[in-house]
Design a protein that fits this description.
The chain is mainly beta. It contains one helix and eleven strands, in the order E-E-E-E-E-E-E-E-E-H-E-E.
Length: about 130
């Protein structure tokens, strides 16, 4: 099983980026995909979660209304999980990770630490938002 994030980079405040998470070795429809981020000196926090089974989504309070998670299942192409990020702020600067878990998002985000016990992790992609 492998998760690979892409799409990170440097963007000015107010700009947009779209992150992608390509998965291999498992069926997207069987897992929920969480997006997490970790800024220097801070704990890893859940940004978003999308349950592949029913498409339901969760967003952290700091990104609601600005970030959108989706599963891209175009025919004859690699299935990816995407995170569209708009109106980016310097506080959004972090390494962003995608992770997969067999549980539904409601169970994942109810954990005391949602990042605990995710089944699979990508290596992360850095997003830097400049002023």
């Amino acid at each position: 099983v492998q998760l690979v994030e892409s799409g990170g980079g440097v963007v000015q405040a107010g700009g947009s980026l779209t992150l992608s998470c390509a998965a291999s070795g498992f069926r997207f429809e069987d897992y929920s995909i969480g997006w997490f981020r970790q800024a220097p000196g801070k704990e890893r926090e859940v940004v978003s979660c999308i349950s592949s089974g029913d498409g339901s989504t969760f967003y952290g309070d700091s990104v609601k209304g600005r970030f959108t998670a989706a599963i891209n299942a175009a025919p004859k192409s690699t299935v990816t999980a995407n995170l569209e990020m708009h109106s980016l702020k310097p506080d959004d600067t972090a390494v962003y990770y995608c992770a997969a878990d067999y549980l539904h998002c409601t169970a994942i985000v109810d954990r005391p630490k949602p990042s605990d016990h995710m089944d699979y992790w990508g290596k992360g992609t850095l997003v830097t938002v400049s002023t």
